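Design job #97: recover the sequence.
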């Protein structure tokens, strides 16, 4: 298994975190220099990407950095690659699962190994990965976040083909929401999840915990969500819609934990 970490070449603190975290698990990896907004805009144009006007410059840079890794997988004909963002923490079985691929069945092309949403809609059927420890289920609804996932060569081709034909949105919404909705290919969720971003991990542990690896993307996303609310439903409609979604998820969705 090849492990690729998307990271700005100037993100020294985040890169040191990865060195420490992956070193703890005796894992080899390589950094992929994340694209900056001006590079991302040029790259998107070269790929004739659909309208990107709804994305902030940082969101576009994030999306195109992932796209560039998929293109690398295809160009180098890599069988399986685990793709991470540079603020992840790894779980107990990372060494076993991220150094070999013999646990991956031939038709498992997209495996999300990250915990992001507290709950998600999952298939009742599961697939054992490590007996009595880890399994996979098919995601039947969104589970955002793109900080940790495994792609086969075929999975990279499917993601690239999909994303180049859609109006551009944040990369995690496109691949772990809209792609899932198309049912083009099953997207599997690892249970328990094998990795989690620092901001999610600390939020679960203690709301007052300081995030030591902050992201510029978070502030831009908050601003965009505020703008979307102004354009869309009234505050009352938004609250009613949120309440219905949360109630349904509470009753029908299954918990995803990080371990």
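Job complete. Output follows.
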């Amino acid at each position: 298994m090849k492990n690729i970490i998307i990271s700005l070449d100037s993100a020294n603190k985040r890169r040191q975190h990865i060195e420490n975290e992956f070193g703890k698990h005796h894992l080899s990896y390589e950094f992929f220099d994340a694209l900056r907004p001006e590079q991302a805009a040029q790259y998107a144009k070269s790929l004739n990407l659909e309208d990107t006007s709804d994305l902030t410059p940082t969101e576009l840079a994030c999306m195109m950095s992932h796209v560039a890794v998929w293109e690398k997988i295809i160009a180098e004909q890599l069988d399986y690659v685990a793709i991470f963002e540079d603020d992840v923490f790894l779980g107990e079985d990372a060494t076993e699962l991220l150094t070999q691929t013999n646990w991956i069945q031939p038709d498992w092309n997209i495996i999300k190994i990250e915990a992001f949403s507290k709950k998600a809609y999952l298939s009742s059927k599961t697939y054992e990965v490590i007996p009595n420890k880890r399994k996979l289920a098919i995601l039947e609804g969104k589970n955002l976040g793109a900080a940790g996932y495994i792609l086969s060569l075929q999975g990279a081709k499917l993601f690239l083909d999909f994303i180049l034909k859609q109006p551009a949105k944040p990369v995690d919404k496109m691949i772990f929401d809209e792609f899932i909705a198309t049912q083009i290919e099953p997207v599997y969720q690892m249970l328990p999840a094998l990795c989690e971003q620092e901001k999610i991990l600390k939020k679960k542990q203690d709301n007052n915990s300081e995030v030591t690896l902050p992201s510029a993307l978070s502030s831009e996303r908050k601003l965009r969500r505020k703008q979307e609310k102004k354009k869309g439903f009234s505050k009352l409609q938004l609250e009613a819609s949120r309440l219905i979604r949360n109630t349904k998820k509470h009753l029908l969705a299954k918990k995803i934990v990080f371990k």
